[in-house]
Design a protein that fits this description.
Helices cover 0% and strands 49% of the residues. The chain has no helices and 11 strands.
Length: 124
């Protein structure tokens, strides 16, 4: 399984970015996926997750109302649309996957597959 995250960059506060995560060796519609982020000196933090099948989604409090997780089954690609970005969103963003949903979806330890991360920097 390989996950390739892309779409990060430098954006001003209030701006938007869309992250992508292309999957191979795994069918995303049959798997659960998530986005995490890690800022310098901090632990990896849950951002959003999407369940296999019914595509139920979950968000962290900081992401709720600003970020949207989605997937394109035809492209086997996961997305994270991020709006109203602020400097506190600056981090390396990682996509993750596992074969089925876990109630511990916000715990990085339960995710089996990880992409290499893409840097998001929000300037004030």
């Amino acid at each position: 399984v390989q996950l390739q995250a892309s779409g990060g960059g430098l954006v001003q506060a209030g701006g938007s970015l869309r992250l992508s995560c292309a999957a191979s060796g795994l069918t995303i519609r049959s798997s659960a996926e998530a986005w995490f982020r890690q800022a310098p000196g901090k632990e990896r933090e849950f951002v959003a997750a999407i369940r296999e099948g019914n595509s139920a989604v979950r968000y962290s409090d900081s992401a709720k109302g600003r970020f949207t997780i989605s997937r394109d089954d035809a492209k086997n690609t996961l997305y994270l649309q991020m709006n109203s970005l602020n400097p506190e969103d600056t981090a390396v963003y990682y996509c993750a996957a596992r074969n089925y949903w876990s109630v511990r979806y916000s715990d990085a330890e339960v995710w089996n597959y990880w992409g290499k991360g893409t840097q998001v920097t929000v300037s004030s």
